[in-house]
Specification:
With about 150 residues, the chain is mainly β. The protein contains two helices and 13 strands; from the N terminus they run αβββββαββββββββ.
Length: about 150
């Protein structure tokens, strides 16, 4: 199946009331679905809210300090955008104090813009990815310190 046929199928699905479509031609099989809800990254697990993982422990670092360091990680595979528009300032930068629910970046996945929000009050210690960089599920985006 060529790219033009696939693009045509995508347009048909977008403009129809179908929510899922599967086509099989010989050994080739394609399944398309429309999502009216947040994307699912694993069976039954929604992409949002943003999971936060503790930093890897370092033997030489004090334990109390390590307990406060966390990462905001990518809940989906996509493209990282630090600002809402190319000419707009970044949502956050190093040293910013972020409130629970505040947007820290946008991840584009399948032409959908997903605002990623902090789940707690924190301070941005490091931005770990660059603008327009492709990111993986679970990849750390920001190193933060809980307030």
């Amino acid at each position: 199946m060529d790219l033009e046929k696939i693009e045509g199928l995508v347009k048909i699905i977008e403009n129809s009331s179908l929510t899922e479509f599967t086509l099989k031609e010989g050994d080739f099989r394609i399944t398309m679905s429309k999502l009216d809800h947040p994307p699912v990254v694993a069976a039954g697990v929604p992409a949002a809210p943003v999971p936060v993982l503790p930093a890897a422990e370092k033997a030489e670092a004090p334990a109390a300090e390590e307990d406060e360091k966390l990462f905001i990680v990518s809940p989906i595979v996509g493209t990282f955008y630090s600002a809402p528009a190319p000419d707009a300032p970044a949502f956050v930068k190093v040293g910013d104090q972020v409130k629970n629910g505040q947007t820290v970046c946008i991840l584009e996945a399948m032409k959908l813009m997903n605002e990623i929000q902090s789940e707690f009050d924190c301070e941005i210690e490091a931005v770990l990815v660059s603008n327009e960089q492709k990111v993986e599920y679970g990849q750390p985006l920001f190193r933060v310190k809980k307030l």
